[in-house]
């Protein structure tokens, strides 16, 4: 069983990496980009029967800084 966790900075939290990417794209001639938010994806290989609630607990305790980040879980 696999889980994929998408982690992004919450709206209103400054994203200096995203801003650097936006600026670099403009420098390369991609003028239509008005904003970039950079996040991360964590893939977990889980034992059969591991619940989404367990993955949520992993996110709350370690994988995401829930003060400034939000996350979404995909189970497959």
TrEMBL record:
Task: List the InterPro entries.
Answer: PurS, PurS-like_sf
Q: What is its main location?
A: cytoplasm
| A Pfam family | PurS
A single GO BP? 'de novo' IMP biosynthetic process
Reactions catalysed according to its record: N(2)-formyl-N(1)-(5-phospho-beta-D-ribosyl)glycinamide + L-glutamine + ATP + H2O = 2-formamido-N(1)-(5-O-phospho-beta-D-ribosyl)acetamidine + L-glutamate + ADP + phosphate + H(+)
Pathway it acts in?
A: Purine metabolism; IMP biosynthesis via de novo pathway; 5-amino-1-(5-phospho-D-ribosyl)imidazole from N(2)-formyl-N(1)-(5-phospho-D-ribosyl)glycinamide: step 1/2
Identify the EC number(s): 6.3.5.3
What does the UniProt entry say about where the protein is found?
A: Cytoplasm
Gene Ontology molecular function: any one: phosphoribosylformylglycinamidine synthase activity
Role according to the record:
Part of the phosphoribosylformylglycinamidine synthase complex involved in the purines biosynthetic pathway. Catalyzes the ATP-dependent conversion of formylglycinamide ribonucleotide (FGAR) and glutamine to yield formylglycinamidine ribonucleotide (FGAM) and glutamate. The FGAM synthase complex is composed of three subunits. PurQ produces an ammonia molecule by converting glutamine to glutamate. PurL transfers the ammonia molecule to FGAR to form FGAM in an ATP-dependent manner.
Q: Which family does it belong to?
A: Belongs to the PurS family.
Q: What is this protein called?
A: Phosphoribosylformylglycinamidine synthase subunit PurS
Source species, please?
Litoreibacter ponti
Q: Which gene encodes it?
A: purS
